[in-house]
Amino acid sequence: MTHAPPPDFEKLGVFYLGRRWDPATSAVTAEPYLYDSKDLTTHAVCVGMTGSGKTGLCVSLLEEAAIDGIPAIAIDPKGDLGNLLLTFPDLAPGDFEPWIDPAEARRRGLDPAAYAAQVATLWREGLAAWGQDGARIARLRAAAGVAIYTPGSTAGLPLRLLRSFTPPPPELSSDREALAERIEGTVAGLLALLGIESDPLRPEPILLAKIVEHAWSAGRALDLPSLIREIQTPPFSTVGVFDLESFLPAARRRDLAMRCNHLLASPSLAAWLEGEPLDIGRLLHGTDGRPRIAIVSLAHLGDGERMFFVTTLLNEMLAWVRSQSGTSSLRALLYMDEIFGFFPPIAAPPSKKPMLTLLKQARASGLGVVLATQNPADLDYKGLANAGTWFLGRLQTERDKMRVVEGLEGAAASSGALFEGRRVERVLAGLPGRVFLAHNVHEDAPVLFHTRWAMSYLRGPLTRDQIQRLMADRRGADTAAGLSAGAEEEVAAASRAPRAAAGAGPPALEAAALGAGSRPHLPPEVEERFLAPARAAGDGGRLVYRPRLHARARLHYVKAPAAIDHWEERQMMAVLSGEGAVPEWRPVAAGVALALESATREPVGLNGRVDAASAPPPAGELAPVPPQHGAAAPVVFEPVPAEALRARSWAGWRRQLAAELYRDQRLVLFECAALRARSQPGESEGDFRARAAHVAHERRDRDVEVLRRRYAPRLAALQEKVRRAEERVRQEQSQLGRERLDTAISIGATLAGAIFGRKLASVGNVTRARSTLRGAGRASREKGDVERAGRGLEAARDELARLESDLLRDVAGIERGLDPGALRLERMELAPRKSDIVVESLTLVWSPWRVGLSGIAEPLFEADAAPAR
Asked: Integer distance in angstroms from the first to the last C-alpha of the chain?
């Protein structure tokens, strides 16, 4: 199939999805179908049976979003979307060969290399037929990264969901209704994973919700072990007006805790405890701010695990949406392929409520939701009345067509748009493959279009081994890139610690491992705290407390010309290395808040008495007394260097820390001159770049809209001028036709009279001859009028084309100046004002380490500072 080259479709803010389809000729036209990206903020639905081209259309949409710098999270239940990683700018056979289906090659009687050459040729010619080439593929790869996440598996990039249930951001916590929805969704997802029905009237969901609410109201994250403990011994004594035992007896609480413990102990679910945290910002943008397509593959999961993950992801996405500023531009996409079971019309699975809330609220924050399905009966059409665009492909049954028309009628009624149901039914009845009806409430009428050739190699679902191969290099790179400098040091410290303890480790630690070390007595002027472990020590070995220095300081950054006046708190930790050694201070890892707990805090049990085991301190809290660890792990203390027992040492360490803070602690800001924007304190370069890119999108969309409004009157006038000129040409051509017909008839009558008449030169013949000559003259004049009208039409069209060219030139100028990928950032570093540095506290902190029977040591709180180097 060959086509004429399409017009220029490389415009920011529009998606090239294909070309218009002419139903009269059943052929593709040369006019491209360009979809305005802003229209996706009102969401979209794609419906089509197997073979309709639905996957190709949705992949093309994600490709166009990536080229435009729009990040996306794509939920992939089947494993098809990993094909977005199979992009080959060179279009060489060797690029395709590792990914072809060998069985298909054998069926064709070809060896893999020959079949790969055929596929490469097919892809090169297919792209060329739609005005694309390898250069556009290279542009796609440069515009955005693509990563495959596999929750519950290490085939791709793992996602950590079960380690902790973190409190929502302040924007969500202050909204009681939104917070209640978040808690309900979190509990429902966990119960789905446990195989327990999430009935709001059952006591188990209510108890879990109250435990989560109690922790989050205190700003405390719950990990699964602490959740298990709090199920058995909740930090409250009543639920509603009933005491705890009446509401849910201890035996049933123990059963629920055991099911959670089975979940924690199950080898098949160990992968849910590892990997990157489920952070929407991290999924949408890399640490450098580059947009990403984060493909979340669920093909390897069971139904309960899928429901748990999708519900959790939707709740996190909802929290992210509520933390974003309002915008009319498209900020990000959430795409879900094959939504069967997650958004049904009658049942209410845990995923339905957050999905419905997203469809209602995400528009204001610029999140576009795109849902795809083969079967229209899978969708709640009342909920999808919020979808502004419907891409409708070939459907299987008449019932499916009726369901789609019903849904469109509801969407049109909610938006106030006109809808011609009968016409849509007729069109849907005759759609061939890869042809879709686009019903967009932002357009005047539905559009038929044929989908373009996808730039990604659509080879079908990827296997586990193929995902591993694609992610092998990225797994290490993405993990390292996703860690802060402090967090990288945590990993490095944890990896070095076992080697140090097993070999030439610190003598004190080795002594502790052998059994020495009771808790030392410290002078009263030395403030002492205990760092609560992030995880349990486990059976075997010993729990060793190592002395650390912890400091909290306030720094003041000032730059009057830039209107910067910022106070910042820094937390630092250092290893006490020995007599005369200068502490090597390191910032506490990003995201770890060490809270100094009040010395008067006394955990209260259910019976009203002090019961430390009933309310263990949260991980990361600096407690005045050691946490209760039970008898399974004997506790020993590493000796404190003698220098730490002298008052003058602490004064010297304060001075030394203040000097180091002045020398090393810089406030790093980034500026974008094109946008006149500056990063916020604490905002990373990647986060600022992502924010600047969205600001550029907003400004570009606004400036282009202003430009179009400015050109609109002149364009309308010229279009009217062209219309009148076309009408005049048609009138003149019609008059010329009539004159030519009259003249032809008159000439025929004159000749007939001259030949067959009785008199060669009768008066009638002479009159008709004169009339014929006059008619010929009028026809000649009409021909001249037609030519003049044609020249007028051509001039009007040229004038319109020049104005449209001017508009496109001005739009291109705006796009070049505000291309998110070309924004330049300037780095600014500020030193703190020396006279304002305040070391507010300097504390001796005991950090917990576990030393196994083999002598290998590992930190139980990974934010422990690295050993001095």
From this structure: 67
The answer to whether residues 316 and 278 touch, using CB atoms and an 8 Å cutoff, is: yes
704 vs 50: CA distance, rounded Å: 39
Task: Return the sign of the alpha-carbon dihedral for residues 38, 44, 48, 50.
Answer: positive
Listed residue (557, 585, 559) closest to 572, CA to CA: 585
Whole-angstrom CA distances from 362 to 317, 325, 329, 438, 443 are 9, 11, 12, 22, 21
Tracing tokens 């009007």 back to the chain, one arrives at: 796
> Given phi > 0 = left and psi -120 to 50 = alpha, else beta, which region is 567?
beta
pLDDT tens digits, 574-620: 887 766 667 888 887 544 445 443 333 333 333 333 333 334 455 45
Which residues partner with 822 through β-bridges?
none
Q: Measuring CA to CA, which residue among 687, 811, 651 is closest to residue 285?
A: 687
The DSSP string of 281-293 is HHHHB-TT--BEE
How many CB atoms neighbour CB 156 within 10 A?
26
Number of neighbouring beta carbons within 10 Å of residue 765: 18
What's the pTM? 0.74
HSE of 530, CA atoms in CB hemisphere, 13 A: 21
Residue corresponding to tokens 């860690």: 483
Sequence-distant (6+) residues with CB within 8 A of 530 are: 545, 622, 623, 624, 625, 626, 627, 845, 846, 848
CA–CA separation, 306 and 299 (whole Å):
9
Q: Which amino acid is at 84?
A: L
User: Contact, 550 vs 528, CB < 8 A?
Assistant: no
